[in-house]
Amino acid sequence: MTANRIPLSQLERGIPFEQRHIGPDAEAQAKMLAQVGYGSLDELTAAAVPDVIKSADALDLPGARTEAEVLAELRELADRNQVLTSMIGLGYYGTFTPPVILRNVMENPAWYTAYTPYQPEISQGRLEALLNFQTVVADLTGLPTSGASLLDEGTAAAEAMTLARRVGKVKGNVFLVDADALPQTIAVIETRAEPLGIEVVVADLSAGIPAGTAERGVFGVLVQYPGASGAVREIKPVIDQAHELGAIVAVAADLLALTLLTSPGELGADIAVGTTQRFGVPMGFGGPHAGYMAVQDKHARSLPGRIVGVSVDADGAKAYRLALQTREQHIRREKATSNICTAQVLLAVMAGMYAVYHGPEGLRTIAHRTHRYAAILAAGLTAGGVELAHDTYFDTVTARVPGKAAEIVAAARDNGVNLYLAGEDLVSISCDETTTRADLAAVWAAFGVTGDVEALDAATADALPAGLLRSDAYLTHPVFHQHRSETAMLRYLRKLADKDYALDRGMIPLGSCTMKLNATTEMEPVTWPEFGELHPFAPVDQAAGYLQLISELEERLSEVTGYDKVSIQPNAGSQGELAGLLAVRAYHRANGDEQRTVCLIPSSAHGTNAASAAMAGMKVVVVKTADDGEVDTDDLRAKIEQYRDELAVLMITYPSTHGVFEEHVADICAQVHEAGGQVYVDGANLNALVGLAKPGHFGGDVSHLNLHKTFCIPHGGGGPGVGPVGVRAHLAPYLPNHPLQPTAGPETGVGPVSAAPWGSAAILPISWSYVRLMGGEGLKRATQVAVLGANYIAKRLEPHYPVLYTGPGNLVAHECIIDLRPLTKASGVTVDDIAKRLIDYGFHAPTMSFPVAGTLMIEPTESEDLGELDRFCDAMIAIRGEVEQVVSGQWPADDNPLHNAPHTAAALGGEWDHPYTREDAVFPGGVQAAEKYWPPVRRIDGAYGDRNLVCSCPPLDEYDN
């Protein structure tokens, strides 16, 4: 007897990827639905999602494909990219990523699936790695305080501009920029300056500040060192002259060059900015890369973005944490000094580890090698009669070839090398860590000259100015000297990863942050050389595969959101917000409505909304939130009438920040439109809408999306992210564009918001793959299961904790808020206590005290299976029982497992004088010893860290061993 025949076509399809991505299987979904009180996913979402926003049609997307099929399709796209040797430079360089770092950081889910280290006790490994990064930046720039990374060099320079305006004493509005600055940096600065009323003056600073400029009120100056042309010049006279005028000076510096050249700090700079891309991070067609900023101590508390600092835990042991968190946008809102709420942590870790691996001697060797290649290249050109634009340089040589520049660039391309056409008569050539002798031969041939590398090397002196050679020591901390062998480096990376909690350990139920599966299939193409080794300013015909992938992703995101056009240039959600608001601003101005500057924002909105609006030159007006968590429609109506002629835009998050589907959203949008305003729908919570509703169809004019949330790009410990902006057709002419790649945006665009034309292009294959693997129906089911998971948790926890807000049918959206304030009032147990106690149970805490103080916002996502959801609910219920023991007096309010959480292994040693047992402390609620996650430190004293700001590697003898 033969087995029942299964059609080959069915066997070929295998198990759909959807079943890999979505945690609860059909049986688990049935149990969850029974708990919630519905018979199917369709019944649940029909009840939860208001009819007025529901999409009538299914998503018009290609059908789901298998993992093997998607990888094959991506391979075809990758093969369409032509990877030539890049000698374009302009802030992007070839680099060798040490394989031990590639495999054990970039490709390791212990690093790339972690969340922002807001729970520092379970983020000590990541925080130490970021402290290494900050130390590298501080040492090389000669400035004492560095941040934990910014988005890229262009945005870092723009942040330096606004920092200079904020801390400087000059009341004028002129920001003076070196004409030899990177062209994309100048463009990003101009984009950011215009809505703030800052006048950007680009001038040749080689002979100092031009006459007549000083009288205009220069509050800040940006100097490039070395210049975009490659020139290395003495910049101290410009710095001194600027200081005499009262201006703040920022230096955009190449970190590799700074291993050989005098640091900006020693030359007197107030701020240094740049990128760490060439420290082992692939070019990736423009990103992601970790930008940097370092400042003088007196400006440390105004530094934008994140800073890792050193504090102490409950035992007095040294511990790391994010310092000065009160600067974050969720707290300061429209008064925030920046809208940057993220970083490029994964890339900063890679760059920092590159320095750890190579040490100061290795970095100097790489820099010397790079410079020698440039010097030999220049000598060969000079010997062949080619005139050079400058005779002091680090890695970049610019040649004057009247009338022949384009011809030479084309000839080099035929020889397999991309050069930079710097002007009609100028060709720029940059060397880097990967440059070879064959590359020099190919360049010489393009110029019609020949050269003998050995002979030229022997006869050619270095081309670095003797007066600018660096003499001070840097990277002296032992961490940069202890990990030379691969064995040592491997173990160091493992030790740090073991201290952290990431998605590879368990659930991270953060509301509003959507920590879900980042599938390995989606991640794999990121490190393919066809995607990783392409320069962002390479000729577009060499990036055919990339451009097709980008176009398809933009089109599919348009279909998902209901918008007409999407730009993927913004490399963070905050930058997507800014781009969307700049488009709204440009639209009103094009219509002659320059008075429309008011941005209405509900009080519950994400803090970056208000900060972005202020950066876009808008006046923020707050709309009240009603008791049920929805927008107070009466107050909104009143504000619309009050500001009718000035109304530019309403920014709302949907579903709301309180985790509910607001029933009045279509009416709200209609009221704003009737008054002449636009509607910005913050896409942070899009994971509750995909396949069910489209913001562009229920009233939105513009939204940013978070690909690092809904579309599976991993959070990377606090970055990378991508924040595309989608718009309806009337706003499309005002999307971002780029001066070096005309195809990257409309000619009428607002300018670039990121340094690279397509932002963080290297990680776009992740989201492209996710959409391709899931198909329209799979995406919809993912949304439905996300909504099911949140409601399941709400129903299980409701008997023990009040669920603060619900929408239609007493249901939540994809997240729920539980109210701890009554417990705190009755017991003294705080939201911090419960968050830290969850660590003892083996969990990352949900989002704390946002959007309501004293609450936890929980988002399970669709990727967590029923076993993990129940484990979390069981832990929360057990913690509720522990609170009762405090209320009853069985445990003192100041000595109980919650107050003392988290408990380390070290805390178990010696005398035990607590009224609860060691087992209660570390094995609560059935936690198994074999599966226990041990936090490396006890609760950290945040106030101590802010009072005693230490932001670089402290001496080892300060640590308790």
Automatic annotation (TrEMBL):
Family of the protein in this entry: Belongs to the GcvP family.
Cofactor: pyridoxal 5'-phosphate
Assembly mode: The glycine cleavage system is composed of four proteins: P, T, L and H.
Statement: the UniProt record of this protein carries the keyword Acyltransferase: no
Coiled-coil segments: 626-653
Annotated EC: 1.4.4.2
Gene3D superfamilies from the UniProt entry: Aspartate Aminotransferase, domain 1, Type I PLP-dependent aspartate aminotransferase-like (Major domain)
Its job: The glycine cleavage system catalyzes the degradation of glycine. The P protein binds the alpha-amino group of glycine through its pyridoxal phosphate cofactor; CO(2) is released and the remaining methylamine moiety is then transferred to the lipoamide cofactor of the H protein.
Entry keyword annotation includes Coiled coil: yes
Protein name: Glycine dehydrogenase (decarboxylating)
Alphabetical keyword list: Coiled coil, Oxidoreductase, Pyridoxal phosphate
Reactions performed catalytically: N(6)-[(R)-lipoyl]-L-lysyl-[glycine-cleavage complex H protein] + glycine + H(+) = N(6)-[(R)-S(8)-aminomethyldihydrolipoyl]-L-lysyl-[glycine-cleavage complex H protein] + CO2
InterPro entries: GcvP, GDC-P_C, GDC-P_N, GDC_P, PyrdxlP-dep_Trfase, PyrdxlP-dep_Trfase_major, PyrdxlP-dep_Trfase_small
Stretches assigned to the Glycine dehydrogenase C-terminal domain: 782-903
GO MF annotation, one: glycine dehydrogenase (decarboxylating) activity
UniProt domain Glycine cleavage system P-protein N-terminal: residue ranges: 19-447, 454-736
Modification N6-(pyridoxal phosphate)lysine occurs at: K709
